Amino acid sequence: MFPALHHLRLGARPTPGATRAGGSARGYLSRENEQRCRGLLEASTRRYRQEAVAAAVLVTLCSVGGYPALLYTLRSSTLTGQHKGDVSFPGGKRDSSDQDVIATALRETQEELGLHLGAESVWGVMRPLPTRRGLTVAPVLAHLGPLECVCLSPNPQEVEDVFTIPLSHLLQAQNHGYTHFRHQGRYSYTLPVFLNGRYPVWGLTAIITDLTLELLAPGAYRRRTRPPSTR
Question: Which cofactor does it need (predicted)?
Fold first, then answer.
C-alpha cells in the first residue's frame, strides 16, 4: 500500500488546543461560504482562466473526519529540478491540449493522484503568481469533498507522500512562521511558512496557502506578507 494512503485513512485531527478553532472551521466548507468564495473569485476566474500561464496547481480543499483540511503532496525526491522533495499542491505545466488553466490543474491532479474531478468541483481561479524562475502559476481552488469517499492512486514517480493539514491547524498563530530574504546585503522580502505539521509548508505553496486562508476565513486569518506580482 502506498504509505500516504494509510495516513489519509487515519485522517487529520485538530492539534491539541485547537478544539474551538476546529469547531468554527467546519463552516469554511459550507455551501454559504462556497458561494461567497465563488463570488469573490468570479472576476479573477474570467480574467485568468484563459491566461497563458506556464503551469497550474489545484488548491485541494477537503474534509477528513468531518474537519476541513487542505491536501498537499510531497514531490518525489527522484525528480529532476530544484523542486524535488518539496511540499506542493498537485499540478504542473500547461499542455498545448489544455483548454484553460482549470483543465491543466485537473489533468495534472489526475496524473499525479489518479483523482478524476469535474469542473463543478472548482470554486474559481486565483491570481497567478510568479516563481523564482519568472514563470507564472495559476492556483485553481477546488473542493474534493470528504476524503474518506475519495480513491487516490498516487503516481510514485511523481509523488512521494500525500498528506492533509486541518484548517484549524493552519489558522493558529503558533503554527505560522516567516522567512526574511536579503539581496546584496539588504532586506528584500518576507514569505510565510506553516509549521508543526507533517512537513513544513514554504515557498510558493505557502504563499498560495496564505491567500487561500485569507479567502476562506477573512474573520479568523489576516495575511501579513505581500504576495509577489506578475505585473
Answer: Mn(2+); Mg(2+)
